[in-house]
Each structure stands twice: as C-alpha cells, then as structure tokens.
Specification:
alpha+beta; Beta-lactamase; six-stranded mixed beta sheet; 34% helix; elongated
Length: 589
C-alpha cells in the first residue's frame, strides 16, 4: 500500500511540472506577442526617446559691415575642448595640463584643477575656432576630446577697430554691449529644431542620425554708416594724442551734417572684441555716448544762437570788454587775463566767441535771460536722448530754470554748470552747419538678409528745426572767425580746405566738485567752411603738459578734416578770396 502511494508521487510531480511549464510557456508566448506586436510601436518610440533629443539648430549670427561692405564682425564655426577626468590617470594630469595650457590659453594650475575633478565630463574651453580645437585633438591624449558647438565664435578681423561701437557677444551667442546688444534680435536670427541621437548625458552623438524638424533662419547683416578708413584714422590720431599728452581718454566723431550719418566714432582706450574678457571693463565704454562732461566754451555757440534768435542781440551789438565780472557772489574770469579783442572798450558777439571770452558770454546770457537761454538749450536737444542706436546713452544734465542759482545763467552761458555728451554736441553743431535742422545721428544704414538682399534702409531723420537759416548763417560766420583770427588759429586750419569751429576748455567735474588741475580740451567744427559737409568733434580728457582745446584737440580736427575731404574725393584747393590772415593773432585756448 505504502509503496504504491510513494510510487504515485513522482507521477503527480511530473504532471505538475509539465503543467507549470505549459502555463509559463503560454504566458511568455502571450507576453512576447504582446510586446512584439501590440506594444511594438509604443515601445519603439519610448526606446528612441531615451536615445534622442530635440535640440535647437544653430542660426548663424549675422555679420556687421561698414558702409562699403567691409566686414567688421562675423561668425565662424566653433568647437569645444572637453575632458573625461574619470578616464585620466591622476599621475598624468600635470603633464597633460602643461601640453594644453599654451593651446587653450589657461594657466596649467587651472587646467590641473579641472582635470582632477572626479566627473565623467567637463568642458575645458568652449566656442573656439576649429584650428585651436584641432591642435588640442592632435595631442592624442586619452580623455581629451573635441566637439562642434551649436553656435559660432564671433570674429572681428580688424581687431580693435570700432570696438567700443560694435560691442561683443557672450558664450550663448547673445550680444552684451554696443550694436551687438542693441541689434541682438536682428543679428541672432531664428534657431531651428533638429532630432538627434544622444548619449546618456543628452549630448548629440557626433555623426549620429539627425532629422531637421524646422530650419534655422540666419541673422540679419547690419550695414553701418561707418567708413573704416576714417574710423581707423580717427582712432590712430586720438591714440597718438593720448600718448603725447598722457591723457586719460579721448574721443572723436565725424558726422555728415545733412544726413546725420556717423562716419567715425572713435574712443580711447578701446579693446579687442575677439578677447574682450582680457580687457578692463572701462575700455568697453563708448565714451562718445556714455560720458557726460561740461562742454566749456564750445557751448558759447548755443548762447550766441539764443541771443540772435531772441532778437535782443544782433551782430552789431556791443558788450563791455572786461576781464572779470561778479555775478551771484562769484567772480567770473576770462581764460587768459588781459587777452582782449584789440584795445577797444567794447566787443561784439563775434569777438566774444572768436576770442572765447567767458565774461562776454556771461553778459550775453544775462542780457537775454534764463528762459530764453533754456529754451534754446532744449531746442538743440540737450538733456534729451539723441536716440543713437548703440544704447547706453547718457542724457547729460540740464537743470530746469527753477533750479538755477544766482550765477547759473552766467556760467551756463559759457558751458559750465551744465553737462552733455560728445554725440549731443556734435548733433547741435551739425544743425548749425546744415542751416538749422536737428538731425538724428545714425550708425546703422540698412539691414540685409543672408543673401545680401536689403530688408530695410534707415534714412535721414529730421527731428525739428532748431534755429532759423539766417541765425545758422551768422553762427557759421562766427565759427569761421574762430579759425581765421581767434582761438582756433592756426591749429584748426587745414591746408587746402577752409574750416570753421570752436575751441573748448573745461575743468573736470568729479563727484560734484571741480578737480584742481584736471581739464578737458576739445574742438568741434566743420569742413569746408563755405559749404559744410562734415562736422568733426575731438575731446581729450585730462591731458598733461597742455590742456587748451586749441592745443591738444584742434590739430587732430585739422588732420581729420583733411582725411574726410580726401576720402570724399575733394581735392585740396582754397580760392584766394577765402583765405584771410591775421598777423600776430594770439591763440589762447
């Protein structure tokens, strides 16, 4: 009995084992068919999603060119050098860092610190030209590799040229200063979308499959009004002046008086946009639009304009010729005591400006009153944005009449107690030169697509009439006198061409107080005098050895005037009737 019962046990177990096997097989068969057939599409998509990414497709940033199409800035394909520190032997790190240092431009210690990090991936340097990445790859170091970047590297072929105007671009292909910042949305373009094969870190696998979902649209090309040759000469001249006079900074502007186009906007110090991170942030600033200063005697033309427009003063009006005057508890002096327009006891408006008399300008201002002067200051746009395209503009300081002190009317009449920028003063003098029309200054001429087709052209913009044509003509006559026998004689003269303009010398204001012994010398004028085409501004900050505008700035104006006229194909020729000599005339400022 018992033996027979034990004999049946293996049979039962065998049947149960067979049944279990059949059930498992059936389940596996069902599961396999479910995965392979019913869920195949969904699972395939899931698997693909784990090894693919949808990434932004690089939209090439637009170029910036000058008025003649010469490239000032463009984008080149870029690459990155990376490391896989976990695959690098710690003992080899110093040697590897030493080899990479001269290629990547980083100190060996900095690279050693990066390579000692226990991480599976780390960028060593991003957005570099292919030639540099190729040198790193050629070392054949295990754990060091290169990969293409989604964005290009910005390249300025002329280095420092117009750098403070152009600005620079950051790591993410975004403009951070100058025109690169102001026109970022146009230059950057529209990124596309691409499906790519990716590794476990979500990075695209080189040479992996990719599918374009949406094509990228390249950025626009920015066509500027700048003339590269004139810009180069302006930068060269103010750079030389900086060294000669051991100055802190210098600025020069060349503007077309009829269109407002800027042919040159030079600042010193400047920097190399290709390596902007290696320069001091102080060098990035576009001083022509960002630095407000007291204009000094160059502002006397605004006072003269107000006087003539008011009808209270004419070219025949006479004012007491004296060296000093007490106003509001302050004594106002001329720049050089005793230097008067001859031995006469009176002087005209022309004499006051030509010899740059502070006392005379104060008397003119007081004769017309604060409201009249203030109205003219605002008519010329001082204290307001000129809307220059670079952004970062300083409006300057023009206090309302209600805030003027007892001496403000007198001091503002000769350019103290008020501040403006080089671009604002240049715009005002352009209005005098062109017959009274205040033009918007422009740096951008047009926008083009990637194929060179013009999308939009920025034409001249007349903001308003600042003064009448008659007043403008009288002011031009006065400015000519400055060069013929006044403070601009002979330093502002240009052989072969007639010129006109005004010297300026003002004390530096810092933290609300005048800095002893610190001055700004400037000159602003136009060429040719009989039919103005270009207004030229020059400013030298804190020169040493001399500081009068007629000494440190006017000679630069003269050389730039010669350059712009030759560039415009106007050969030197001065009719004898336009040449006036003033023997023994003294240059004061």
């Amino acid at each position: 009995m018992i033996d027979r019962a034990f004999a049946r046990v293996p049979v039962v177990r065998a049947k149960l084992a067979i049944l279990a096997t059949l059930l498992v097989t059936a389940w596996l068969t069902w599961r396999l068919s479910d995965v392979q057939i019913r869920q195949s599409a969904n699972l395939s998509r899931l698997a693909l999603s784990q090894h693919s990414e949808t990434v932004d497709a690089f939209a090439k940033r637009g170029s910036i060119v000058d008025r003649d199409g010469n490239i000032l800035v463009r984008s080149l394909p870029s690459e990155s050098v990376y490391a896989v520190p976990t695959s690098i032997n710690a003992a080899d790190v110093p040697e590897i860092a030493a080899k990479l240092s001269p290629i990547l431009g980083y100190p060996p210690e900095q690279l050693e610190a990066a390579l000692h990090e226990r991480t599976p991936f780390r960028y060593l340097k991003r957005k570099i030209p292919h030639s540099i990445a190729e040198r790193a790859q050629a070392l054949g170091i295990e754990g060091i590799g290169t990969e293409p970047e989604d964005t290009g590297v910005r390249y300025a072929p002329s280095g420092h040229l117009a750098s403070t105007v152009l600005g620079f671009v950051g790591m993410e292909d975004k403009g951070l200063a100058g025109l690169e910042y102001a026109f970022n949305d146009y230059l950057r373009g529209t990124p596309g979308k691409t499906h790519v094969e990716a590794d476990e870190f979500g990075r695209a696998i080189p040479f992996g499959d990719s599918t374009v979902v949406e094509r990228a649209v390249p950025g626009r090309t920015l066509v500027l009004t700048l003339d590269s040759y004139i810009q180069f000469e302006a930068e060269r001249l103010i750079g030389a002046a900086m060294k000669t006079w051991h100055a802190k900074s210098a600025t020069a502007i060349v503007m077309d008086v009829h269109t407002g186009e800027i042919l040159a906007m030079a600042n010193a110090p400047d920097y190399d946009p290709n390596h902007f991170d290696k320069s001091n942030a102080n060098a990035w600033r576009n001083r022509a639009v960002a630095d407000a200063y007291e204009p000094g005697s160059t502002f006397k033309l605004i006072t003269a304009a107000a006087a003539l427009e008011s009808g209270k003063v004419t070219m025949k009006s006479r004012f007491p010729a004296r060296d000093q005057i007490d106003v509001g508890g302050h004594t106002i002096h001329n720049a050089e005591d005793g230097f008067m327009a001859g031995s006469s006891s009176t002087e005209s408006l022309e004499d006051i400006v030509a010899y740059s008399h502070n006392v005379g300008a104060a008397e003119v201002g007081m004769s017309i009153g604060a409201p009249t002067l203030y109205k003219m200051i605002k008519s010329f746009g001082f204290g307001d944005d000129t809307h220059i395209e670079t952004g970062g503009e300083n409006d300057g300081i023009v206090p309302p009449v209600s805030d003027w002190s007892g001496s403000s009317l007198a001091t503002i009449s000769f350019g103290h107690g008020i501040s403006t920028t080089p671009i604002a003063l240049t715009r005002a003098y352009a209005a005098i030169a062109n017959g009274g029309l205040l033009m918007r200054p422009r740096l951008v001429h047009a926008l083009e697509d990637a194929n060179g087709k013009v999308i939009y052209t920025y034409g001249p913009e007349i903001e308003r009439r600042a003064i009448s044509e008659q007043t403008a003509a009288k002011l031009r006559h006065i400015l000519r006198s400055v060069v013929v026998y006044g403070t601009g004689n002979p330093s502002a003269r240009t052989p072969g061409y007639t010129t006109a303009g005004k010297t300026g010398t003002a004390q530096v204001v810092e933290n609300g107080r005048y800095e002893p012994g610190e001055y700004i010398g400037s000159f602003i004028g136009y060429v040719p005098a009989e039919a103005p085409r270009y207004v030229i501004f020059v400013k030298i900050e804190r020169p040493r050895g001399a500081y009068y505008g007629g000494v440190v700035a006017a000679p630069i104006f003269s050389q730039l005037a010669h350059t712009v006229m030759l560039d415009a194909d106007v050969m030197p020729t001065v009719p004898a009737r336009l040449v006036r000599h003033a023997a023994g005339a003294k240059t004061s400022r």
